């Protein structure tokens, strides 16, 4: 996950998709590496890693919530391996379990078009804490984001250990104006933009949770890592699926797959 991106040249020519942003010849030197922090074991016990290179969170003992663009269409699916129960993927306490079924938002088309969520049914229950989805319509504040993805835009490496960071939200209109210049129309009412100078999620963090503590101090999920132009570029922010907009659908899907 995240951190410091290389200086963005060629902004308009870089890929906007979840593909690793190969800086098409524009490999400017990285500025100082700021970053999130390493999460110690047990820190975010519901955070999981998916084998296609995404993150996710356990919304129920055998259901993982992730991004729609991380998975294929709805239906039986035994091709995903989920690593859970450890922030260090190579730790002896890490559990791996297979998927049996995927349910992707029926409205999902592509990550920048909204509806970027999916749930994955696992072959068995995991005895781990689950992360409830928010019951409030929060879309502003400081949120915690996490993942095993790249720690800079130009690194093609994934991390063995979970990283996390705290990022403030950015007003939708500001975020949309930036992306409009890059030719992408932000789906404002289904997205939360967040990030600050040098701190962002990055390739490989997709599907992972954006969380906040509720008024009882319990972590709840507010968003899902979805997309961004490069990583941690000044003026461009990470875009997260706004869970509150899909609360009923996600809760129903979780229930069905439990
Ligand atoms: N789509 C990316 C993935 O598959 C996530 C990108 C998040 N980018 C960002 N700048 N916040 O991992």
TrEMBL record:
Entry annotated with the keyword Signal: yes
Domain Peptidase S1: 33-255
SMART domains hit by this protein: Tryp_SPc
GO molecular function, one term: serine-type endopeptidase activity
GO biological process, one term: proteolysis
Pfam family, any one: Trypsin
Extent of the signal sequence: 1-23
Protein name: Trypsin
Species assigned in the record: Actinoplanes derwentensis
């Amino acid at each position: 996950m995240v951190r410091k991106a290389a200086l963005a040249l060629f902004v308009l020519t870089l890929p906007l998709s979840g593909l690793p942003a190969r800086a098409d010849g524009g490999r400017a030197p990285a500025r100082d590496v700021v970053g999130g922090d390493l999460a110690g074991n047990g820190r975010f016990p519901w955070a999981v890693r998916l084998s296609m290179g995404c993150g996710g969170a356990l919304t129920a003992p055998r259901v993982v919530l992730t991004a729609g663009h991380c998975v294929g269409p709805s239906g039986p699916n035994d091709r995903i391996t989920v690593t859970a129960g450890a922030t260090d993927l190579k730790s002896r306490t890490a559990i791996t379990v297979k998927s049996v079924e995927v349910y992707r938002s029926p409205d999902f088309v592509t990550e920048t078009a909204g509806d970027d969520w999916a749930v994955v049914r696992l072959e068995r229950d995991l005895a781990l804490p689950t992360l409830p989805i928010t019951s409030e319509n929060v879309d502003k504040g400081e949120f915690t984001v996490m993942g095993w993805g790249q720690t800079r835009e130009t690194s093609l490496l994934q991390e063995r250990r979970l990283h996390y960071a705290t990022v403030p939200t950015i007003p939708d209109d500001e975020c949309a104006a930036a992306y409009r210049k890059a030719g992408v129309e932000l789906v404002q009412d289904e997205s939360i933009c967040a990030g600050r100078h040098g701190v962002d999620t990055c390739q490989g963090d997709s599907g992972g949770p954006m969380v906040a503590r509720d008024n009882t101090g319990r972590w709840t999920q507010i968003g899902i890592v979805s997309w961004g132009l490069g990583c941690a570029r000044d003026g461009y922010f990470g875009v997260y699926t706004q869970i509150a907009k899909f609360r009923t659908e996600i809760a129903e899907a979780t229930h069905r797959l439990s």
